[in-house]
Amino acid sequence: MKHTCFALMTTVIILAGSAVQAQVNQCAKRADVLERLEIKYGETRQSIGLGSNNSVVETFASTETGSWTITVTQPNGLTCLVASGQAFETLEQVAKKTGSPV
Description:
Elements: H1 2-22, E1 27-29, H2 30-41, E2 44-50, E3 56-61, E4 68-73, E5 78-85
C-alpha cells in the first residue's frame, strides 16, 4: 500500500502546483477543510507525504462509502482540494527485499 500511496502522492505533487493555483476557490483553512471532510463525507486521513516545496499532501477517505479526497496544504497553512472520487480501497502489499529477483 505504501508504494501505491507514494506513487499517487508523487503524481499529485507534480500536478498540485498548477492545480492549486487554478483552484483557489477550492482552498480554505486546514481546520475547516478537515471538519468538512469528516462531517459531510465521513473521511479520515489515510496517508500523508511531504512535497518538494514543503507542502503536505494527504489522502482522506471513508472506508464505509469509498469516497476519497486528496489535499495539499501549503506552508502558509492554506489547504486545497486537488482531487476526489469514489471506490477507495486499501491495499496490503509486502515490500520486496532489496536485490531480490522480480
